[in-house]
Structures are given as structure tokens and as C-alpha cells.
Specification:
alpha/beta, 18 helices, Rossmann fold, 6-stranded parallel beta sheet
């Protein structure tokens, strides 16, 4: 099949490259000439493990192309995917659909023959109806089927998620589109991946419902961690104890500084606003959104407390800036709340992240970004672990202690044990676990 992917952000680029690797001919389109230039030169504008190699492979095999020209890509395509950004709209928290609707209008002007227009962007219920209306208004003769096909990609594991997904969700009532989507995802059919066909509105809601539920699990265990601290229990053991229950499951039960990233913050807010407008408020999700916001803001207080009640004039080493490991994504990362709060309390910040420092430098002021882990720690009054990169999981604690002015470690990801830190003579603070 011939596929046009409108948007080469995280979702569009990963999806386009993986469809090409399935054997389809894919043209990825973006308005940003600098981004297309990077891709045409063999680079990738985002960090995602394995993506650069997969791009190179499929470009070499002439299945993957990049362009700023929408018209030719759309005219030749059997399926046109809309994979543009839907950020939270300032002021009210609704998803900003202006890019989606602009793409729909542009597609309508140049589409030829029967074409499947697929919304891959995360969009509120009813967006597909509006996309169909825009196309019909712009080009009454357009023969299109508007389809919802939400993405379920985890940053840092996106290629595996696309090729070996838990499920694929398709929203359409058009038999021609059903047949085309089956052809498009045929490699997954061979692997017996569940492919759920629904109506379009149900498909749109599935994505929001899934993210809201996962955000709720994270927030639940974070509140349990606070309770553990009050009563002397261990949240990691609580997580394991409830996670072994098959009805609950183990995933998304790691206590920490709160969720961030490109999906959970904006999607929980968007579904809350949708529900409020529909007259069916989601009280649980509303609480989750607020509790998570408060939690990130409160993390600096934990660090200040671990440092004896004041960080004024002290240097704090921060390891990890991205919202999670294996990505350079800084969107709604806890570090963006923690670092400014520490600076407001008088702290100087040194920071290191394996991939996110370039992006972080545009979002954080007066931070000393270092070239490595131990350079970051050297001379600091305390070490704070914010993101659990693998390279932070086996630090030489003796060396860390020797480099710190004071042997204080605040571990917001619980990657070390209190017992081990006590043996090294380190003042150690973590989330939801009794001090030793």
C-alpha cells in the first residue's frame, strides 16, 4: 500500500517508519523544512532507541521518503494519516485541534480517488466527525473514509510497541476502510494481534480512557507511598503485593515524583474537559490530574527537608531531566517543577541527562549542564535522582560519597535500597519506604 503520513513528530515518524518496515511505501510529510532536511540526511530529530537504524534501512530499500510537499504524497496515497500535534489549549485545557483541522482541509484540496483518511493523533470524541465535515465542505466530490486509529506507543519502546502491540484499535463503519486497514496491518494479523474494529467515536474514547486509567494507577500508588511513609510501611512491597493480583497487574505501580510526558498530562486534562461539557464529569480523573500536579510541585520540599531544611547557597546535583528514561522528551517532566523550586529556595543546580540536556537547556535557566554523571556530582551538597536511566542504577556509591560535600542522596525513583545506603554511611531519602 501507499501511505502518506502528515506530521513527523514522535507518533508520525515512528508510525511511518514502522509501516515502511512492514513493506508499505510511505511518504512522511512535514511543514518544517529543517526537520525534513535532517531526515533526508539520515538523521532523526527525536531520540528513540533503534529509530535511526530503521529509518536508514527503509530509505535504502526505497520504501520510505520525506518531503515538505503535501499534494503529491496525498494524491498517490491509498491511506493518509493525520499525525500532527494536539497540545493542551491554553486557558481551558481542551486539546488544540487546529493542526488536525488544517491538515484535513489541506488533504481535501488535493485528494484523488477513494482514499482512507486516518486520524492517528490523539483527539477528543467527535473529532473524526468534524474532519469528515471539513473534507466534505472543502471538496464535496472527495471520496474518502475518515477512520480513527489511535496510537499506543510508549516513548523509549515505541518500535516494539508498534510491531508487537497489545492491540490495534480501528474506528470506522466503512467496509472499504475495514478492508484497507486489514491490509495495512496484515503483518500483525499473522502474529495474531487483537485488532478491534469499533465505531469512530468509541475508538477515539478508548485512547483517552486508557491513558486516564494508567494515570490513575500511577497517582494511586503515589498516594499509597505517602501513606506508607506515615505508617512505616514499604510501598515497593505494597506494589508487589497488589500487583500479583491478576485483576490489578504489576505495571504502572512504581511510586515516584509524578507522571509527565506528551500523553498523560494533556490527555487526562482533555478527557476531563470533554466529560464536563458532556454533563458527565469524571471526578476520579479530575482528582488524579490535580493530585499529580501537586505532587510534582511538592518534590522540591522533600529535597529541602532531606538537606536539613534549607538549600540556600547549596549546590544540588540532579541526575535525569527527561520525564522518563530512553527519551529526550521534556514535556511536563517532573524536573521542570523541581529545579525551579529549588532555585527559588536559593540552590545552585548542576544537572546531567544522557539525552535530554539540549531540550532541557531551552526550558531551564541558570543550570550548569555537565558532561557526565560524576562530573555532575562532584562538589555538590546533595544528589537527587529524578529519572531512572539505566546508567544511574549502578553508581559507584563510594565514589559518589567521596565527591559529595555532604553524603546526601535523594532517590525519587527508589532505584537503591535504604539498607545499602546505610552501609555506605549515606543519608538516604526515597519514596514511600522506611528510613534505616
Amino acid at each position: 500500500m501507499r501511505v502518506a503520513m502528515i506530521g513527523t513528530g514522535y507518533v508520525g515518524l515512528v508510525s511511518g517508519v514502522c509501516f515502511a518496515d512492514f513493506g508499505h511505501t510511505v511518504t512522511c510529510v512535514d511543514k518544517d523544512p529543517a526537520k525534513i532536511d535532517i531526515l533526508n540526511k539520515g538523521g532523526v530529530p527525536i531520540f528513540e532507541p533503534g529509530l535511526e537504524d530503521l529509518v536508514a534501512k527503509n530509505v535504502k530499500e526505497k520504501r520510505l521518503f520525506f518531503t515538505t510537499e503535501t499534494a503529491k504524497a496525498v494524491k498517490e496515497a491509498d491511506a493518509v494519516f493525520i499525525a500532527v500535534g494536539t497540545p493542551a489549549r491554553r486557558g481551558d485545557g481542551h486539546a488544540d485541534l487546529s493542526y488536525v483541522y488544517a491538515a484535513a482541509e489541506e488533504i481535501a484540496k488535493v485528494v484523488e480517488g477513494f482514499t482512507m483518511v486516518v486520524t492517528k493523533s490523539t483527539v477528543p470524541v467527535g473529532t473524526g466527525d468534524e474532519v469528515a465535515r471539513i473534507i466534505a465542505k472543502t471538496n464535496p466530490n472527495a471520496d474518502v473514509a475518515v477512520v480513527s486509529n489511535p496510537e499506543f506507543l510508549r516513548e523509549g519502546a515505541a518500535i516494539d510497541d508498534f510491531k508487537r502491540p497489545d492491540r490495534v484499535v480501528v474506528g470506522t463503519d466503512d467496509d472499504r476502510a475495514v478492508a484497507l486497514m486489514k491490509r495495512l496491518y496484515r503483518p500483525l494479523y499473522l502474529n495474531e494481534t487483537p485488532i478491534l474494529f469499533t465505531d469512530r467515536r468509541t475508538s477515539e474514547l478508548i485512547k483517552y480512557a486508557g491513558n486516564a486509567f494508567l494515570a490513575t494507577k500511577i497517582t494511586f500508588i503515589n498516594e499509597m507511598a505517602d501513606l506508607c511513609e506515615k505508617v512505616g510501611a514499604n510501598v515497593q512491597q505494597v506494589s508487589r503485593g497488589i500487583g500479583l493480583d491478576g485483576r490489578i497487574g504489576r505495571k504502572f505501580l512504581n511510586a515516584g515524583p509524578g507522571y509527565g510526558g506528551s500523553c498523560f498530562p494533556k490527555d487526562t486534562l482533555a478527557v476531563v474537559r470533554t466529560a464536563q461539557e458532556a454533563g458527565s464529569p469524571l471526578k476520579i480523573v479530575e482528582t488524579v490530574e490535580q493530585v499529580n500536579k501537586d505532587r510534582k510541585a511538592a518534590m522540591a520540599g522533600r529535597i529541602i527537608e532531606a538537606c536539613g531544611g534549607s538549600v540556600d547557597g547549596k549546590t544540588i546535583a540532579v541526575l535525569g531531566l527527561a520525564f522518563k528514561p530512553n527519551t529526550d522528551d521534556m514535556r511536563d517532566a517532573p524536573s521542570l517543577d523541581i529545579i525551579p523550586a529549588l532555585q527559588s529556595a536559593g540552590a545552585q543546580i548542576k544537572a546531567f541527562d544522557p539525552e535530554a540536556m539540549k531540550e532541557a537547556s531551552h526550558m531551564l535557566d541558570d543550570v550548569e549542564f555537565t558532561s557526565g554523571t560524576y562530573e555532575c556530582i562532584d562538589g555538590a551538597d546533595a544528589l537527587v535522582i529524578v529519572t531512572e536511566w539505566d546508567s544511574f542504577r549502578a553508581l559507584d556509591i563510594r565514589k559518589v560519597k567521596s565527591l559529595l560535600s555532604e553524603p546526601i542522596i535523594v532517590d525519587l525513583r527508589n532505584i537503591y535500597s535504604p539498607e545499602q545506603m546505610a552501609e555506605y554511611g549515606v543519608t538516604y531519602s526515597s519514596i514511600g519506604r522506611p528510613a534505616v
